[in-house]
Amino acid sequence: FRNCTFSANTSADHGGAVRVDDASASFDGCTFAYNTAFNHGGAVALFGGATLTVTGGLISSNAAGQNGGGVMLAGGSASFEGVSMVTNTASVDGGAIHVSAAGAHLTFLGGEVTHNQALQRGGGFALADVQGSLIDGCHVFENSAADGGALALLSGANVTLLGCVIEVNHASGWGGAGYVEGNAFLTAERTAFLTN
Fold first, then answer.
1. Inter-CA distances, 150 with 12, 147, 188, Å
2. Would you call 9 helix, strand, or coil by DSSP?
3. Among 59, 61, 81, 85, which lies 20 to 30 A Cα-Cα from 37?
């Protein structure tokens, strides 16, 4: 899909606009706005061995009744480059992105994750069981959650932050910038954590 708009779509289950099961999907310069999923993935939900590639574009003002206000990954891999994820909301975890699948892989290069909200964990990112994943050169700004205003690394997550700016995020409970639990592992290099 190139230069497409997905707006005001609704799912009674997963993936307010798009659900990908054991398939590949690519979006270049697309906008996902005001989509809603009753369960997971306000805009997009991935399952099984799905592969998602998103280049440029905007994922904004989407909502999930459970996890992944913008995108939920329950298998496979997802790559984002130069994407803006703004004002997405999740009623549980992962205001912008939620990943929860053994062996799942996430790459997020450049772009911004701003003003997203999760009522429980990970205002920007909530990542569990994701291995060898990279968030590189991203601006993570003014996201909020109960725990992990910017990001929450949950059981089994292994994530590297490289050259990011994590600033002015808020948690009403633990970890304005980040929340790491259980056997999760976070590596941060050349990353600034400011005024969280």
1. 28, 9, 14
2. coil
3. 81
The pLDDT of residue 2? 98
The answer to whether 76 touches 100, Cβ cutoff 8 Å, is no
> DSSP states of 60-77 as a string?
ES-EESSS-SSEEEESSE
**How far is 101 from 61, CA to CA, in rounded Å?**
25
Amino acid letter for position 41: G
Positions in the chain whose pLDDT score sits under 70: none
Give the β-pairing of 125-128 and 10-11. unpaired
Rg of the chain on CA atoms, in Å: 14
Exposed/middle/buried for 102, CB within 10 Å: 0-12, 13-18, 19+?
A: exposed
- Mind listing the pLDDT tens digit for each residue in 12-61? 999 999 999 999 999 999 999 999 999 999 999 999 999 999 999 999 99
One-letter identity of residue 192 = A
Residue type, 152: A
The two tokens of residue 74 are 């329950």
Question: CA 39 to CA 54: how far, in whole Å?
Answer: 22
Q: How many CA atoms lie within 13 A of 137 on its CB side?
A: 8
The predicted structure's pLDDT at residue 57: 98
Phi-psi region of 163 (alpha: psi -120 to 50; beta: other; left: phi over 0): left
**pLDDT given for residue 115 in this prediction:** 98
